[in-house]
Amino acid sequence: MRADASAMRALTHRFHTRHDFTPELGWETFRLLSLFDEPTSTAGLKALADQLGSPLRHRKGVEKILASLSDVLLVQKQEDRYCLTSLGEKFSSLDTGWSSVFKAAVHSLYYWLWDDKYIVANPSWSYKEVCRFIREKGIHGVTADEIVIYVTLSAKKRFNCRSVSFSRSSVAGVTGWLMALDPPLVISQNGRLRINPLVSPSADTVDYALAGASSYFGNPIVLHPLVLDLIGVSLLMSGDQVLEMFGANQANKASVTWLGGDPPAILIRSRALEIAQAIARNHATNR
């Protein structure tokens, strides 16, 4: 059911992507929480951080980081305590050397957890819009202020709201993850954020992007132009570049099978598929 204009204005939209939720602190908070056998309080988490000499011990509070981990379905709150979700448990065996997989997964979760059927904005909408705008500007780049203006105007038009809480800090809450991927999808040069033109996304980044896409489009994924574009935005590539990547067999053959056809299709067989069911369940609950 489509909400009318006055109803949409009355809804509580969330546009801000927390800059406190950095890849480093996000991973460290997740890692420490995974060491508990039972749900724990923020005080218990901080005590463990102090005991282990974790970077988290320098934080005044960890609530915002935990809230963002909850936004991406990795952590849940039970009354005043926190624990990993079933999806989070699947990542809990990852050691420090696997933090790059964690970053690729969070990027994909952030991006694909927005559904255009939603009428209430959440941080994933902003995350996707920032990716879209940076891709649009390409190697010429864009400033953080220009992104703020773009997202603010897009939000007012899309959700018919008078005020939008989205700032340079919000931009950092997105680009921090894009720049933390290995290799990074975005680089910063002379105050401008640009797509990284010299490298292709890693196998992990591609695998998790495709797993996220399969939560929408099923598996195998038929590569219609709209599907290619949405995958492309998540990888900061054009749809044609995505198609070329698969057609040229540049994708990870261990996790992606080219099926051909018109339009062509691909079959996803990677471990990254563990996020697809969680995303699909979330959409079914919130639509």
Brief descriptors of the model:
287 residues; two-stranded antiparallel sheet; mainly alpha; three-stranded antiparallel sheet; 7 strands; Arc Repressor Mutant, subunit A; 13 helices; 3 domains
Topology readout:
Elements: H1 5-10, H2 23-33, H3 42-52, H4 63-71, E1 75-78, E2 81-84, H5 86-91, H6 99-112, H7 123-137, H8 144-159, H9 168-180, E3 186-189, E4 192-195, H10 203-217, E5 221-222, H11 225-235, H12 239-247, E6 256-261, E7 264-268, H13 274-286
Helix pairs in contact: 2-4, 6-7, 6-10, 7-8, 7-9, 8-9, 10-11, 10-13, 11-12
Describe the protein:
With 287 residues, the protein is mostly helical. The chain contains 13 helices and 7 strands. It has helices at 5-10, 23-33, 42-52, 63-71, 86-91, 99-112, 123-137, 144-159, 168-180, 203-217, 225-235, 239-247, 274-286; strands spanning 75-78, 81-84, 186-189, 192-195, 221-222, 256-261, 264-268.
